[in-house]
Amino acid sequence: MRESQYQSKVRAYNNHLERQRLKQNILIIKYDNSRNLNKIALSNAESPLHQYAKLIVSLVLKQNNHDFITEYRLNNGKEVDIYDLDDNNFIEIQKANFEKKLENYQRELDLGLVNDIFIIPLDDFKGNLNDDLEMVRYKLGL
Fold first, then answer.
1. CB within 8 Å of 114: residues ≥ 6 apart
2. What is the 3-state secondary structure (H, E, C) of 74-140?
3. pTM to 2 decimal places
4. What is the domain range of residue 61?
5. Number of domains in the chain
6. What would the pLDDT profile of 30-87 be if each residue is shown by its tens digit?
7. Nearest CA to 66 among 46, 48, 81, 82?
């Protein structure tokens, strides 16, 4: 076998092992976080607008019969604002640095551990309940 073919097979096998390890980590995390299912975790460190936005996104998910976990923690220390269990999506509410936040979760997306990552800009929330609900439904495709 040529050296390049051998290296390709080794890389593929290592990627397979990494995917298996991460899937096991994700399953453990889902179990650990299950006590927070469909509950909204708010922090004093978050701005009132961020708390409001998290509330609106959670309300939209609940209205569409989706199960979710707020402040979802992964084994690698990363934390997601909202994890939609039904569609297997991460939802982040972000004021700035959208590309950096997307890069944080790119590995989970590439390995197929999460279907999609939605980053909703904090500036999109205007404080009007009906308009904000409609905007979140549109952005999440619900």
1. 88, 89, 90, 105, 108
2. CCCCCEEEEEECCCCEEEEEECCCHHHHHHHCHHHHHCCCCCEEEEEEHHHCCCCHHHHHHHHHHHH
3. 0.73
4. 3-140
5. 1
6. 545 556 788 888 878 888 999 999 999 999 999 999 989 888 887 677 788 999 988 8
7. 82
